Here is the input.
Amino acid sequence: MKKSETGQYSSALYEYLSGFLTEERRKKFEKHIALRSRYVTIVVEDIFQPHNASAVLRSAECFGLQDVHIIESKNKYNPNPDVVMGANKWLTLHHHSGKENNTDECISFLKKNKYRIVATTPHKNDQLISQLDLSKGKVALFFGTELEGISKNIMDAADEFVKIPMFGFTESFNISVSAAICMYELMTKLRTSNIDWQLSEEEKNNILLDWARNSIKKPELLEEEFRKKLTQ
Here is the structure.
């Protein structure tokens, strides 16, 4: 999103582009944008199985989370189109790659945006996911690799640790299942709380604009036409 595409400009551009959408699509946009949240965000570190990568995105979109942060240090994040079912079109994906330490860069970005770093792992100071206090501020929930879990960098930077209760012989859930359970727990609690979890008007405008762009063929041509109208 360009800096100029904020406030009134992005709102006006969306109104223009939405004229090329069906009425049904516009109504869906209005319904779902009101339910979107950035209060909880998911962070995945070096997931390498396409099925898991796709399932996490699909669950995030279904539960109304807007952002997913993807750390790509060892493994490239490759969602499977047959599993993700287009969910990535409606999410804001933040890729952290190409830096000397992608994990630290991601953590720094989230802390600057006032997120608590919450790691999903058994730990001596952990708590059940249901016990996490959402009133203390925004949450960035970290998930590690399928085999090794979260990295030491995340362990060292974490503000809190959470776990999912287990009652069977198997030591852990599949990562995509763990993420879905955590998202359900947190978003259900969040939506029934008094916390201000909804998007700002500017965030709504920018996301609606992205959704419109993803729904129209060659939106750049229509945007150029819109800019020309502004200068006339």
